[in-house]
Amino acid sequence: xxxxxxxxxxxxxxxxxxxxxxxxxxxxxxxxQVEVWISTSDPNSEPAVGLSPSARLxxxxxxxxxSNSGNADVTITVNENQRYQQMDGFxxxxxxxxAWLMNYKLDNNKRAEVMERxxxxxxxxxxxxxxxxxxxxxxxxxxxYADAPNDTSLSQFSIDRDKAxxxxxxxxxxxxxxxxxxxxxxxxxxxxxxxxxxxNGGKLRAEHYGTYANYFKKYIEAYQAEGVPIYAVTLxxxxxxxxxxxxxxxMNIQDQTGFxxxxxxxxxxxAGMNTKIxxxxxxxxxWNFPNQVxxxxxxxxxxxxxxxxxxxxxxxxxxxxxxxxxxxxxxKEVWFTEGGFGNWNDPQNGTSSGFDxxxxxxxxxxxxxxxxxxxxxxxxxxKDGPALLAPNNxxxxxxxxxxxxxxxxxxxxxxxxxxxxxxxxxxxxxxxPNAYRIDSNTGSEVKNVAFRNPDGSKVVVAYNSSSAQRNVxxxxxxxxxxxxxxxxxxxxxxxxxxxx
Length: 500
Hints:
The chain is an alpha/beta fold. Helix content is 23%, strand content 27%. It has helices at 96-104, 108-119, 160-163, 166-176, 209-225, 253-270, 288-299, 320-328, 353-367, 419-428, and strands at 4-5, 33-40, 58-64, 74-86, 89-93, 128-133, 181-186, 200-203, 230-234, 248-250, 276-283, 308-312, 333-339, 341-342, 372-377, 379-380, 395-396, 399-401, 415-417, 436-440, 446-452, 458-464, 470-476, 479-485, 489-495. Strands 1, 2, 3, 4, 20, 21, 22, 23, 24 and 25 form a 10-stranded mixed β-sheet that branches. It has an 8-stranded parallel β-barrel with strand order 5-6-7-9-11-12-13-15, surrounded by 7 helices. Strands 16-18-19 form a 3-stranded mixed β-sheet. The longest helix has 18 residues, at 253-270.
C-alpha cells in the first residue's frame, strides 16, 4: 500500500494588526473538544428505517482529549501524517425516477426541506451526483439524446427530455451545495448505433465509435450550457451485463481500450475538455477488466486519457479489489459509483444484518482507496419505482416518496428517510471534498476509518459490530479520549487542532 508522508512544514506569517483585530490563538491538542454523533441499529421499532428513533445520526455529549483518558477495550490510533486517497465525496443518483418524485410528489416547501436534508449544510451535505446519460432502468421510458435513426451528424441531439424535471432537481441540489461534482454514465448508446438496433443489449457498431465519442462531447457541452459542469464520465454502466428488459450495452476490454484511446480521449482533449474518463463501472471481482484497459492504454502511449476505474458492489467482492488495482496503477484513481440497497442486502427481517452490511461496506470502500461512495436512487416510491423494472422489484431509494396515483399535479409530501441516508451521513456530513483518508488501525469487531479535511479538522467513523457495548480509546499523538460505543452502533467523531 503506497502512502504519502506529509513533510514537516514551518509556516511563518506576519500579522497586520489593525483597530479591533485580534491575533488568533494557536490550536493545541490538549483538551480539544470532540463532536460525537451516533446511529444505533433497531430493526423492530420502525423497520423501514431500521435505526433507533433516538440514535439516527444524533449528536450526543461531546468528549475532550486529555493526556490520560484511561483504559479501553479497543484503541484506535489516528496518524494524520500518513495520507491515502483524496476524497471527491459521497452521493446518490438523481435518476429519472428520483427527480420525478422530488419534482412532482413534493410541494415547494417539502422539496426545499428534502433538498436541504440531502445536500445542505444542516443536512448530510451530499457532494456527488452520478447521472444517467439518457435513461436507466429507473425511468418512465427508455430514451437517449439522439434517438432519430442514422443521425450520424447528431444534428437532432437534444437533452430536452431532461429539462422538465431532471435538470431542475440537479440544479436545486447544486444550489444547496455548490461543491457538488456531477458524473455521467450511459446505460446504452442510441439504438441505431448498435448491432442489435435496440437499446436493450447489444454492442456498439465499429463504424459509430467516432459518432458515439461526439455524443459524449455534445452531452458535456449541453449540460455545461445549462450550468451543470460534468466532472467525469464512465464509458458504460455495467459493461459486462446486457439485460433485455432495460437499456444496456456490452463492452469488453478491447472495446473500452479502443474507444478511450482512439476516440473519446482525443475527442474530449481536442475540444479542450478536462472531463475525466473512467473505465469499467461494474463489479469488484472483475477488477482485472479495468486493470487491463489501463495497462493497454499505457502500453500504447495513451494512458493519459484514462483517469481510473469505477466499481459497483453487486457480487461477493469485499472492496479489496480496489486496492489491487490501485497497487497496479497508483497513478490512477478509484471510485465507487453505484451501491444499491434493497431486500437482498438490507432486509426488514427483524435482524441487524442490513445495518451491518451497509456500514461495513462504507468503511471497506473508503479503506480501499475509493475517492467516493455513491449509492443508487436518491428516491423511489413505495413500489420501488417509477421503473422499467416490474413493481416491487426489491430496490429501495435513499428516500421513499409516496406516489399513489402517478399524477404530476398532486404532491403527497410523504417522505421516509432510510438507513442509507443516516449511515452515509456519518461520512458525508463531516468529510468534505478534497479531504484525505488518513491512517488508523482497525480491528475485526470495532472497525473504523479516519479522514483529515482541508481545514485541518479530523473525522473518525467507528462501528461496533458486537451486540455488546465496547469502550474505545481514540489516540491522537500524545492525547486521547475514551468513549463507549453501544452494541450495533456507529459513531462519528470530529475535532480540530494540531497534534502534539
